[in-house]
Every structure is written in C-alpha cells, then in structure tokens.
Amino acid sequence: MKRRAFLSSAGVGLAAAGTAATIAAPAIAQTSQPEIKWRMASSYPKSLDTIYGAAEFIARRVSDATDGKFQIRTFAAGEIVPALQVLDAVQNGTVECGQSAAYFYVGKDPTFCFDTAMPFGLNTRQHIAWMMHGGGLELMREVFKDYNIHHIPAGNTGAQMGGWFRKEIKSLDDLNGLKMRIGGLVGQILTPFGLVPQQLGGGDIYPALERGTIDAAEFVGPYDDEKLGFYKVAKYYYYPGWWEGSAQIPLMFNMQAWEQLPKSYQTILEQACWEANAWMIAKYDTLNASALKRLVGGGAVLRPFPRDMMQACEKAAFEFYDKLAAGNPRFKKVYDGWKPFLEQERLWFRVAENGFDSFVYSQSAQR
User: Fold this and answer.
1) CA 143 → CA 177, 317, 331, 332, distances in Å?
2) Strands 179-181 and 196-198, bridge-based pairing
3) Is 259 known to sit in a ligand binding site?
4) Nearest 10 degrees: Cα torsion 41, 44, 45, 48
5) pLDDT tens, 151-209?
6) Which of 28, 118, 141, 250 has the fewest CB atoms within 10 Å, i.e. is most exposed?
7) What is d(CA 97, CA 62) in angstroms, rounded to the nearest whole number?
C-alpha cells in the first residue's frame, strides 16, 4: 500500500512539474523574443494573388510562428516605392525587406539575372537544385552582399509563357522594330534582331499595350495574364517563354536589419520563404491550366514560337553570355559555376524526365 501511495504521489508531483514547465515556457519566450515590426515593399500589385500573395503568406507564417511578436506589413508596388525600385529601397534601408525579381536590376549588374532566370537556362526543378545543392545560393549571396542585401528564395513561377503580341510572329524579321515589355537579359539578346525592349512593372503593362506604347508584352503565365487583361488588347499568345524556364522570386533583406534579428527569427523567416517557394509553384501549376482554357475559349490565339527562330536565339544567348563573362569578373564567376551545372542537369533530365514526359504527353495529345 505504501509503495502504491508513493508512486501515486510521485506521479502527481511529476505531472505538476510538467504543468509548471509548460506554463513557464511561453513566459520565458515572451521575455526573450522582442517585438519587431517591419515593412516589405513588393514589385507586384495586390491583384496578383500568387506572386504578391506569397509575400502575404510569408508575413502570416512569421507572425503565427512568433505569436505575433514579429510583424511584417506588406505593401504593393507604388505604395512605398515604384515596382522597379524595390532593391534600392531595401539597400538604403527605406524598408527592411522587399519582394522583387532580381533580373529587374540587370542595369546595375547583369549577374542578377542568374538569380531569376537565364534565357535557355535551368527549368524550375533544376534552378531549385542549383540554389539548394549546386552552389547557386552561395554565389548569388555574394552578389547581393555588395548591395547591402541578404536574400532568400521565396517563390518561383515555373516556366513562363512567351507573351502577348498584336501581330503574328513568323520569323526573326517580325521582331524588327517591335516594342516589347520584357525582363532580364533577353532584351539585350534580342536587340541585335531589332527588338526594342521595355522595362515595366506588372501594373503598368496593360495601359502601355492599350495605348500602343508597346506592341507586345510578356509577364508570367495564363493565370496572371488573364487577371491583367492582356488578351483584350493583344490576341496572339506565344509559347514557350524560353527566357524563363523558371523564374525565382526572392525576398531581399537590408543587411543591417537582417543581422539585428534574433537567430530564431532568422530561422523562422528562412522556413517561411522556402515554404512560400513551394506554395507559389504549386498554386501556379494548379491554376494556369484552367486559365489557359478560358483564355483560348475567349479568343486568344495560341501559337508556338518558330523553331528556327528559337535556335537562332539560343545561339545568340550563349554567345552573349560568353561576351559578358569576358568583361565582367562577377558574371564570369557565377557563369563558370552555373553552366557546368546546366549541362549536367540536362544530361540527367534527358534520360528520366524527358523520357517520361515525352511519352505521356504524346499519348495524352492522341486521346
């Protein structure tokens, strides 16, 4: 009896101790975790609930994981700074963090394009592999560090469409004199063929197309393009967007703001960003298919780019990269790591992924 009484009382004591520990833990956390409020500027309008939505997704995750101690308020393009000035705002500390595509800033350094997408480069899975295990993240963080920025991948659109054109594109000659909204290095690659590239934020594209300031525009893919209404003013919809077989959207952090965060908050942000990376890819893959059907049903004319045109552009692209690498040491350092990885990945994907995809897609087309 005494032994049973002892065990019973010991059990109560252990339970009480466990309860005390459970109660005490949040109290300790509350005193050790500071209250922080940040602002995040985005390059995208609120109507784009997948790209801009990823910024909101991250802010919610961070708040939930810190019991509301770490609050990040998101601002759409133009609310604090214009769409294409987000990097500058983060660099100089106007905001603590920003959501933007790095290739918007190739005017500062063409090396930024590796972070988003290189024409005829890695596809989405390959890009993530390069970032996580192929040395890409380390290489790009060296580049961003020179701009007082720490960055984390925080979204990817997947392969993009080639864009909306007022007229058919039957050959390279049809690009001559064409004014097109297009991002990254591809504008410079196509300039020798007569294309006149334009850099515009997402919210500025439709008015420019409508007024005839531009003749064509690429943005992301069917789901976003439908929201932005491009099909109303340019009916020819081309594919593939060979300049973006993948398009990474990172979060950029002012270096001083990042370094002042507690390590636990840094970890929570990293986890939220990588989760948003998968979230964005999955959402676009889910929604683009039905959006494409609606666009074609509504009168959009779907066209592939001519193969000989793409072959000429691919040749021009890699000649352009070699030229850039010869004159830009920072570009060369990243290129020398990126290109062998690209070639290795293509060898593997030709065997497994393409073998599978080619068969099942051809079978589907025949049914």
Assistant:
1) 34, 22, 9, 12
2) parallel
3) no
4) -130
5) 999 999 999 999 999 999 999 999 999 999 998 899 999 999 999 999 888 889 999 99
6) 28
7) 13
Confirm whether residue 226 is marked as ligand binding. Answer: no
Between CA 210 and CA 173 the distance in angstroms is 24
Query: Hey, CA dihedral for 6, 7, 10, 11, is it positive or negative?
Result: negative
Calculate the alpha carbon distances from 192 to 164, 172, 187, 294 in Å: 21, 10, 9, 36
Dihedral of the alpha carbons of 195, 196, 202, 203, in degrees to the nearest 10: -140
Strands (DSSP E) contained in 269-348 are 301-304
Q: Was 230 annotated as part of a binding site?
A: no
Strand partners, 3: none
The two tokens of residue 5 are 């009484």
163: left (phi over 0), alpha (psi -120 to 50) or beta: left
pLDDT digits (tens, 9 = 90+) for 5-29: 433 333 333 333 333 333 344 433 4
Contact between 232 and 299 (Cβ < 8 Å):
no
SS3 category, 131: helix
Is 181 annotated for ligand binding? yes
Task: Sketch the domain layout of the chain as residue ranges.
Answer: 36-155+247-287
Q: Count of CB atoms within 10 A of residue 307's CB?
A: 8
Annotated binding-site residue? 270: no
**What kind of architecture, by CATH, is found in domain 36-155+247-287?**
3-Layer(aba) Sandwich (3.40)
Look at residues 84, 291, 300, 309 and name the one whose alpha carbon lies nearest to residue 178: 309
* Interatomic CA distance for residues 272 and 6, integer angstroms: 48
Pairing of strands 216-217, 236-239: unpaired
pLDDT digits (tens, 9 = 90+) for 260-291: 999 999 999 999 999 999 999 999 999 999 99
Report the C-alpha gap between 152 and 145 in whole angstroms. Answer: 12
Under 8 Å between Cβ of 169 and 218: no
Mean pLDDT of 328-335: 98
What are the residues facing 74 on neighbouring strands? 40
Tally of CB atoms within 10 A around 13? 10
